[in-house]
Amino acid sequence: MTATTPPLVSIRDLRTWFHTEGGVARAVDGVSFDIGAGETVGIVGESGCGKSVTALSILRLIQPPGRIEPGSRIEFEGRDIVTLGDEEIRDIRGNRISMIFQEPMSALNPVFTVGDQVAEVARVHADMSRKEAWNRAVEMLALTGIPDAETRARQYPHQLSGGMRQRVLIAMALMMKPALVIADEPTTALDVTIQAQILELLVELQKRIGTSILMITHDLGVIAETTSRVIVMYAGEVVEQADVDELFAKPHHPYTEGLMHSMPHIGHDQERLNVIPGTVPAPTDWPAGCRFRERCPYSWDLCEREHPPLYQVGVAHVSRCHLAIEPERRNHPHPPLVVEEGVAAA
Amino acid sequence: MSGQTRDFAPISSPRPRESPLALGVRRILRARSSRAALVVLGIIVLAGALAPLIAPYDPAAQPDIVALKDLPPSLAHPFGTDPYSRDVLSRVIYGARLSLLIGVLATLVSLTLGVAYGAIAGYAGGLVDALMMRVLDAFLSIPRLLLLIGVLVAWPRLSIAALVLFLGFTGWFGLSRIVRGQVLALKHAEFITAARALGASRRRILWRHLLPNLVSPIVVAATLGVAHVVVLEAGLSYLGIGVPQPQASWGNIIQDGADQVAALWWMSLFPGLFIVFTVMTLNILGEALRDAYERRS
User: Fold this and answer.
1) Best exposed site among A207, A293, A338, B175 by fewest CB in 10 Å?
2) In this complex, do B7 and A161 lie within 8 Å of one another by their Cβ atoms?
3) How confident is the model at residue B10 (pLDDT cuts 50, 70, 90)?
């Protein structure tokens, strides 16, 4: 990351809280990061870590009881998205920032043809006639590799395969050549063989259009294939951030380490996958101190007393772990405090 | 770009476009009972539409109030004549025209009100929804027939237009509940979030994205609603507070022979049969449409 040009998106202390009857769920709790122009940034983490809420917050798509708390800032092209008026944010959505959803079937309206739905983006944002918008839509569908786009455009979502539906969503997202595309688990719902094609397509179109991508996923494979910089989220916070090569070579945070160890490796004789024991704590009461402490094999009393800050642990590499100041403790792992049934401490 | 087509789904169906309405029609044509219902209803509708061409007499003409009154069915008057010597067949045909027209128009009024009210309540949610639903509860607690009788008795010279409006204004409560429920269920659907994510306004989302998904339940409710209004109008006209004389509606034809039902049996039998057939066929079609849509989802 060179800091000469200002970043496209600059998120500072983003807190998106859900004020439910069961308490305040602090789904995103003080997240800060930048996305540079043309850059692909990945956010990785398990379900419930706040990555999707972060994505939705950038487009201000959070519905009550959720709320972006005052003091949060999302700067985009010189404006703070958090305080924009309804009209202004609508003008950004789908136009300057667009989103690709996880489940292409449910993200498409079942009663309209896919061509209509792609064309609608242009109808909303560009002063285009029905015919012009339709032609643009067909062009866009062809660009995403849909064969016989003219015919396909006249079909309904249920008449298309999952991979094709995802191509339709990509066409919608890229219709206005946005500055930023947020891809929320874009390949999770697809067959493995199709996943690679869709990722390839995204990367290729990104190069062509020059857009930035925020890739939200739980899949480190997707991160490795597409992104240049990675943000690891855990319990509503950024716990580690680094360039992708650095992160894979030298993961610092025990959670990142755990994520990597839980990936299956071909050629390794493994009885069972390494899993991170326990689950993400409830967002209504994050534990004091380090939020990963109870699942961590290195935690000690400091982790309970003090909520770790983001330590600088390398060039453009930060980690929210006290190991940064006591690195020798990494040599003495212990069973984590939460112990899963069947894996009882010996 | 056509070289990189790797995920093939067969271009599956011979019908590239299928709207909910087309689906409904196709399903109706598939089942024998609903096909028969469609034919019967079609004949009644056609008779009403072409009334001036096929009615053998002027429905209001009283050619000879002494010699030609109360005639039982014959070749000259297949449905007999009434106490004013009017031809009952002609009156039933014209009655079809008026009763169906009132049914359809009143239902359109109800549909407009019910959809608008329900959609706004469901989409707005929160306090607005709660308030609108309490008001609706109040409306629903008023018996429709009693309200209509009360209003219509008090109304001096009732026009058909006013009757349509009254029937329409009192008929939308149930539908607006259905619409509100559907909007509530759909508004958090991912494709609605997706529509918001591409910058659609609230109005556009409600009318362009949500309502088209409600076409099926609305069509079903409308079909059953027409049947309901036909019965209601017949009842009111029978009570003498619906369609005013000398206009013929099925209800007031029966009323004309009501004081001698046994002697003038043809005066209640024929219009009665038309009411029964109309209502039955509409209900069969409504149920068939409901089946069609439920099976799909």
Assistant:
1) A207
2) yes
3) very low
